[in-house]
Specification:
four-stranded antiparallel sheet; Surface presentation of antigens (SPOA); about 5% helix; elongated; 1 helix; cell membrane; cell projection; mainly beta
Length: about 120
């Protein structure tokens, strides 16, 4: 759902900053020091795959073949429940589906912290 635009390769991102967040140019290091975004500049152009997963379902092949336009596939989530946001197949956040003009988008409501282990 939140993958790259097929035509341009660009992802349309909107910053809906409420004014309470830290400047994007400053981020604390693990040792508490503040670093600038310029230190990360070498990785700014590295492409990543972003997926917003509404839910999952398991179907038998026979059920799959019976699907037609207008068919409803029940997912493992309830209405209003947070969706999972994956970056390069790693769960990084949870969020809510939003409508931005005539496009669907996702607003992140929870950032998933890594456990610190190397994968």
């Amino acid at each position: 759902m939140a993958d790259e635009d097929e035509n341009s390769g660009d992802v349309g991102l909107q910053n809906l900053d409420d004014g309470t967040s830290r400047s994007p140019d400053l981020a604390p290091k693990e040792d508490g020091q503040v670093r600038s975004a310029q230190e990360l500049e070498p990785v700014f152009d590295v492409p990543v795959r972003v997926q917003a997963v509404l839910g999952k379902s398991t179907l038998e092949v026979s059920q799959l073949l019976k699907l037609a336009p207008g068919a409803v596939v029940e997912l493992d989530r309830k209405v209003g429940e947070a969706i999972d946001i994956y970056v390069n197949n790693r769960l990084v956040a949870r969020g809510e589906v939003v409508l931005v003009e005539d496009h669907l988008g996702v607003t992140m409501t929870e950032i998933i912290k890594l456990d610190g282990g190397a994968n």
